[in-house]
Amino acid sequence: MVTTPNKIDATAAVCALTFIAVLAVSAYWDPGIRALHVVESLPYLLAALLCLRRNTLGYALGLVSGAFWLWTAGVLTTFIRNGFERLGMLVRSGSVDRWDILIAVPAAVAAAGLAVSSVLGYASRSSKSWRDAVVLAAAVVIVPAFFVAIFAVFAPQYLGMFRGLAIR
User: Fold this and answer.
1) 125 class by beta-carbon count within 10 Å (0-12 exposed, 13-18 middle, 19+ buried)
2) 83 with 108: CB under 8 angstroms?
3) What share of the chain is helix, strand, coil (3-state, %, to 5)?
4) How confident is the model at residue 167 (pLDDT cuts 50, 70, 90)?
5) What average pLDDT does the segment 36-63 reach?
6) I need a labelling partner for 38 at 20 to 30 A (CA). Which of 20, 78, 156, 158 fits?
7) What is each CA distance from 155 to 3, 14, 150, in whole angstroms?
8) For residue 1, is pLDDT > 60?
9) Nearest to 41 by CA among 60, 55, 27, 29
């Protein structure tokens, strides 16, 4: 059964599409990551479409994809922090030295918005099931594995951020 999306679902979709636009701009600036960003955009696009259909999988994809990006860009690397430093530089001086770093700001806002609105969108559903937990658990495993796999295929230089996380 498909129900009409509400404002929260629309927000999730807009955040996902904004994140995809940021990936596109980044790929335009750096041809070496174009293939990575095309494939990386797929879970975000699927999350947008499924959230608009108020589908549990869409909410799970939105939450996990957004949170995974925030974790990698904000905890495993300094990309988000550096982006906000560039934003401060732009506000103070009216110029910025690295637009490719500043782009982390809209990416972080979009990823956080997607994750939060996915949680809120799911919470606003009237029909919930214990099976939804299985969908979320599967997303928690599959989405990070997907991202790590595409890093390995398209941009193995990014795998270094996971080096200290190996389970021994």
Assistant:
1) middle
2) yes
3) 85, 0, 15
4) low
5) 97
6) 78
7) 39, 27, 7
8) no
9) 27
For residue range 54-97, list pLDDT tens digits in order: 999 999 999 999 999 999 999 999 999 999 999 999 999 999 99
From its phi and psi, is residue 5 left (phi > 0), alpha (psi between -120 and 50) or beta? beta
Cα within 13 Å of Cα(38), Cβ side:
8
Asked if 75 and 47 touch (Cβ cutoff 8 Å), the reply is: no
Confidence of residue 51 (pLDDT cuts 50, 70, 90): very high
Q: Which tokens sit at 50?
A: 């499924």
**Which pair of tokens denotes residue 134?**
């299985």
pTM over 0.70, yes/no? yes
Q: Which H/E stretch holds residue 134? A: helix 131-154
Cα 149 to Cα 60: distance, rounded to the nearest angstrom: 19
